[in-house]
Specification:
The protein is an all-alpha fold and 206 residues long. It has one domain: Urease accessory protein UreF (Orthogonal Bundle), CATH 1.10.4190.10. It has eleven helices and no strands. The chain starts with a helix and ends in a 10-residue tail after the last helix. 45% of the residues are buried.
Length: 206
């Protein structure tokens, strides 16, 4: 239903009060280190997080949560650092509180699980749901890089546009993937998130 699609777009938009703009997922540390310093390195970093890190793991968790699975313990165990756990739980709690206020009761929990639970009543394909979730995640990281690399607005949009084929591919695979397909190999991103916990001057929570 078109209204269901609009509802999902609202839930995943930057205007929805999950505070996503406050979290860089370790990208702030990578920028401070110089590992991410232009459009090409920004795109490569985000692509690796999507394909090998939390992007893929969250996509599979989201698909299974929509199917009714209780995966809170699994989602928490997958967080490789204190900040990553804080990020998914704080955003998930904010998301759950807001959709509940809008008439869709959802318990607080890690963000992909909260979104998956809330989406059960939407007449949308899981692949579409996952694609928009991953796009929102990539857009938030792109916005971070646009402001702090800094990239130009046009460069930032080119980065996000170039990630669309990867997002579509991941969504198609995650929608039908078994739970044991979850794996993570984004070591540089995980280490950056850990080191960010002690970064002296920082703008983002993670």
């Amino acid at each position: 239903m078109p209204t269901d699609l609009l509802k999902l777009v609202q839930w995943l938009s930057p205007a929805f009060p999950t505070g996503g703009y406050a979290y860089s997922h370790g990208l702030e540390q990578a920028i401070a280190d110089g590992a991410v310093h232009d459009a090409a390195t920004t795109q490569a970093w985000i692509a690796d997080v999507l394909r090998l890190g939390a992007g893929w793991s969250d996509a599979v968790l989201l698909a299974h949560a929509r199917g009714g699975a209780d995966l809170c313990d699994v989602a928490r165990a997958l967080a490789p650092s204190a900040e990553r756990l804080r990020e998914t739980e704080e955003q998930g709690a904010a998301f759950a509180a807001t959709v509940t206020a809008l008439g869709v009761p959802v318990d607080a929990g890690p963000l992909p699980l909260a979104v998956g639970t809330a989406s059960r009543g939407l007449d949308l394909q899981t692949e579409q749901l996952v694609a928009l979730f991953l796009h929102a995640f990539a857009a938030n990281l792109t916005a971070c890089a646009t402001r702090f690399v800094p990239l130009g607005q046009t460069q930032g949009q080119r980065v996000l546009d170039a990630l669309h084929p990867l997002i579509a591919d991941l969504a198609a695979r995650a929608a039908i993937a078994p739970l044991d397909a979850i794996a993570s190999a984004a070591v540089a991103g995980d280490l950056a998130a850990m080191r960010h916990e002690t970064l002296d001057v920082r703008i983002f929570k993670t």
